[in-house]
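Q: Hand in one record:
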Amino acid sequence: MMGLVGWSVAVPTVLGAVLGIWLDKRYPGIHSWTLTLLIIGLALGCLNAWHWVVKEDRQIHMDLEHKDE
């Protein structure tokens, strides 16, 4: 489970950085696409990880409730 959470944060972060580097090379400007998309990728990855953790927590609690019955 922890590996899944780690990858769910790492993959969008790296993809955002790679896309940002490509955009910075193609369309240079005053603002850094790399930094912007890196932060967006990190935020999306954290939301994704939070989703997985909440889903697993619900499943654990449901399993415990059914075990007690």
